[in-house]
Amino acid sequence: MTAPTDNLRINGERLWDSLMEMAKVGPGIAGGNNRQTLTDADAEGRKLFQAWCEAAGMTLGVDKMGTMFATRPGTDPEALPVYIGSHLDTQPTGGKYDGVLGVLAGLEVIRSLNDLGIKTKHPVVVTNWTNEEGARFAPAMLASGVFAGAIPIDYAYSRRDPEGLAFGDELKRIGWVGDEEVGARKMHAYFEYHIEQGPILEAEQKQIGVVTHCQGLWWLEVTLTGREAHTGSTPMNLRVNAGFAMARIFEMVQQVAMENQPGAVGGVGQVFFTPNSRNVLPGKVVFTIDIRTPELAKLNAMRARIEKEAAAIAEALGVGSAIEAVGHFDPVTFDPTLVGRVRGAAERLGYSHMDIISGAGHDACWTAKVAPTTMIMCPCVGGLSHNEAEEISPEWAAAGADVLLHAVLETAEI
Ligand code: GLV
Ligand code: MN
Ligand code: MN
Ligand code: MN
């Protein structure tokens, strides 16, 4: 296996143009994107990506979760493919780069190999995973979770969005139920290139994050049951206030995260009040808790404590409570050989780099269960992500894609 020692680069301008083209699909309200999974905008983004892949001479396969696999053949028909992947779906108020960069940088690697006339022994497959974000259908990384055998497909199909629409029905509606069995593909290796979504690389003035680990997470969904009553005429001592119990649980989650420093986070992203009227005490509150840390024992201890204290807070206020775990993965250690190739590529290309732990979840966290996997990161302005103002520079985007090209070439073998 020979490492490419020359100065191969992707075409940074073409990568940037493609990012800007994709950003026109499902525009947000503040300069970013709303291309949530299985919406019409998602379908349009998929069509555009398919057209680009086919123009680059690739063949598209689609599995029963709607995940897209575009293949550039290798010279050895027996060789397992090297995969590059990420996601084209976005948060409801998402940026232009979260996920999209990894998919389109994969495409740019293929376009560059075509330009350079380089053939690889192993096929190279660019992947767009369905529902990475989990904003519409929890959990996040749903299709890669099914691919890795961690989530049953029937459970995935049955997940519902806040309007009550089922994942399976919406996948059918947009016309992307493929015929491949999920997880039937075997991977020689998997690479994912992503923006950092945090402040470290920019602060440290590094162009490349060599991702060694990803922190684990629990997503909990809490249902509190109180009694609907008039906000004006119900005396304080007669209230069974699910909203107040929710507020106390919020504070407790913050406290648990703070007491587990360094390296733990916890927060609430979504709240549904019923009936959600300003002069009715809520009879029911459903809300989500997201806790993460790279340490497995700490992660599970945080979950246990939060569940116990939430139940106690509700009980003390006479409020009913139920907690369901709707998303989980353990902390991940990426493949040391592939991590070394990413570090070596950054070194060879003269890019400043540092080792980093991913704070966000990625499809790579699931592929790591079934194949040697690693990730590459580039900085993002102010560490801001899951925000329409998410920003990166064309130079940052290109540097990581260069590293991806080299690491993939070393793995797919010329
Ligand atoms: C997915 O984007 C996550 O990390 O929550
Ligand atoms: Mn992402
Ligand atoms: Mn995201
Ligand atoms: Mn993510």
UniProtKB/TrEMBL annotation:
> GO MF annotations for this entry?
hydrolase activity, acting on carbon-nitrogen (but not peptide) bonds, in linear amidines; metal ion binding
Q: Record's InterPro entries?
A: Amidase_Cbmase, Bact_exopeptidase_dim_dom, Peptidase_M20, Peptidase_M20_dimer
In which domain of life is the source organism classified? Bacteria
Q: Which residues bind Zn(2+) 2?
A: 98, 133, 386
* Family of this protein: Belongs to the peptidase M20 family.
Q: Which cofactor does it need?
A: Zn(2+)
Describe cofactor binding as the record notes it: Binds 2 Zn(2+) ions per subunit.
Q: Which UniProt keywords apply?
A: Hydrolase, Metal-binding, Zinc
The Peptidase M20 dimerisation domain sits at 215-314
Name by which UniProt lists this protein = Zn-dependent hydrolase
Keyword NADP carried by entry: no
Q: Does the keyword Cytoplasm apply?
A: no
